[in-house]
Amino acid sequence: MASPGGAASAGGAASGAGSLLVVSAPSGAGKTTLCKRLLAEVPAIEFSVSHTTRAARAGERDGVDYHFVGEGEFAALRAEGAFLEWALVAGHLYGTSAAAVRAAQGRGRDVLLDIDTQGAASVRRLDPGAVHIFILPPDPEALRARLEGRGSEAPDALERRLGLARGEMDQAHLYDYLIVNDDLDEAYERLRAVVLAVRSRRERQAGRLEAIAARFRQPEA
Known about the structure:
alpha/beta; Rossmann fold; five-stranded parallel sheet; four-stranded mixed sheet; 9 strands
C-alpha cells in the first residue's frame, strides 16, 4: 500500500512528531481494504512498507506493498538493528524499518503499520505511545467465507490461516481500539475517527495550544 500524500490541513496531522498507528487483524478481516482507504482519504499519513521474505502475490509491487528480500538480506538487516520490529509469520519473515518510521514521524506525519500481533507486541514494548487498533471479523463463518472468496488459498493454507486467526483473536484485548468489520463503510468511519481523535490529543496539540493561549494573555488594545 502507498499513501498518495497530501498536505496537513483541517483533519491533517498536528505540528510536532507524528503518531505510530499499529493496525492488526486476522487475514481476511478487511484490514488491507480499510487501510488503503484511510491512506487515500486522510492526509498526512504514511504507510510503513515492510520487508518480507515471502514471494509477491499477483498485483503486488516491490517497494510499494512490501520490500521483497531474500532470507540472507533480511538476516543482515536484522543483525544491523535496522528493524523496529520483526516477526516470523506463516513461515515468512516480516520487518519494519526503524529509520523510515522515525523519519516520517519527524516530518510530523502519522505512520501506519500493518503488522501482525507478534510485531505489535514488539512495538508495544519499544514505543508505549503507539496507538494499537485491531480489526475484527464479525464471526468465524464470515472470515472463512472471505478467505474462500479470494480463490487464492489452497485448502491447507486456508485452514492454517484460520488457525492463526484463533490465536490472533486471543490478543485483541491488548489493543487500544477494537473495530468490528461487519459493514465496511461503518468500519472505515470508526477507523478514521480513531485517527482524528489521536490527532486531537493534548500532547499533539500542545504547540498550537500555547500559541493560542499566548494570544489570550496579551492585553486587549
